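User: Can you recover a sequence for this backbone? Please restate the input before giving your answer.

Assistant: Of course. Working from this structure:
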């Protein structure tokens, strides 16, 4: 049997931009992506702390060092700049492997989006 488990989580990061006219996705600073063990194109769930919205999208690589967290396309309507969000990715693995799997969790500074 296989199960879906949390693979990576960026816990409480601040939205820096919302671009309705972009084709879609979430743009992230590569420093944040690497710290969280996430890759470009990876499906993620976005949970908005400020308004309770939940949505799924995929990651696109932003500019390194920008600290960017930008919701694009229709997702831009589900956030406001300054909202605090959680970004979660999941992996599918064997049930026995999942019992000992440890996800990558990061806790950026919500004031600066800096990764510790």
């Amino acid at each position: 049997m296989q199960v879906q488990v949390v693979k990576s989580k960026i816990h409480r990061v601040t939205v820096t931009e919302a671009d309705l006219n972009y084709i879609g996705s979430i743009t992230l600073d590569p420093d944040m992506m690497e710290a969280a063990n996430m890759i470009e194109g990876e499906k993620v769930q976005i949970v908005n702390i400020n308004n309770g919205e939940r949505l799924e999208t995929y990651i696109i690589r932003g500019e390194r060092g920008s600290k960017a967290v930008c919701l694009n396309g229709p997702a831009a309507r589900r956030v406001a700049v300054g909202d605090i969000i959680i970004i979660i990715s999941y992996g599918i693995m064997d049930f026995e492997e999942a019992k000992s799997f440890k996800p990558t969790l990061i806790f950026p500074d919500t004031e600066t989006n800096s990764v510790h």
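That completes the design. The first helix runs from residue 30 to 35.
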